[in-house]
Design a protein that fits this description.
Blueprint: E1 4-7, E2 10-12, E3 18-24, H1 26-31, E4 34-39, E5 47-52, E6 58-60, E7 68-73, E8 78-83, E9 92-98, E10 113-117
Parallel strand pairs: 2-10
Antiparallel strand pairs: 1-3, 3-8, 4-5, 4-9, 5-6, 7-8, 9-10
């Protein structure tokens, strides 16, 4: 069963930090590269944020390079997104999914976690 459970979002001031977590069903986590995606208000299409392969190499959208760090804990079947120097334009609902080259592998999504950057 495909399952993604995101957590860790919240309200933070510009320049602040948050750490997002995503618990993933074991079989999916073990065979997949993993990615974070975000969806802005007004229901626009989710956009790629970052990915990490099974072996560790990472990839980021240009707008978050140097500010966000993706990591994975293979023992806990969990992928993380450390977000530093947050900007108002980072405000979105964040989701994780298996990654197939900057696009989500599965059509099924978790509930997401809301990140709001505002003073």
């Amino acid at each position: 069963q495909v399952q993604f459970v995101e957590s860790g979002g919240g309200l933070v001031q510009p320049g602040g930090s948050l750490r997002l977590s995503c618990a993933v069903s074991e079989i999916i986590f073990r065979i997949s590269d993993m990615g974070w995606y975000r969806q802005y208000p007004a229901g626009k299409q989710r956009e790629f944020v970052a990915s990490i392969s099974k072996d560790g190499p990472t990839n980021y959208v240009d707008s978050v390079k140097g500010r966000f760090t993706i990591s994975r804990d293979n023992a806990e079947n969990t992928v993380y997104l450390q977000m530093n120097s947050l900007k108002p334009e980072d405000t979105a609902v964040y989701y994780c999914n298996a990654d197939a080259g900057r696009v989500p592998l599965f059509a099924s999504w978790g509930q997401g976690t809301q990140v709001t950057v505002s003073s």
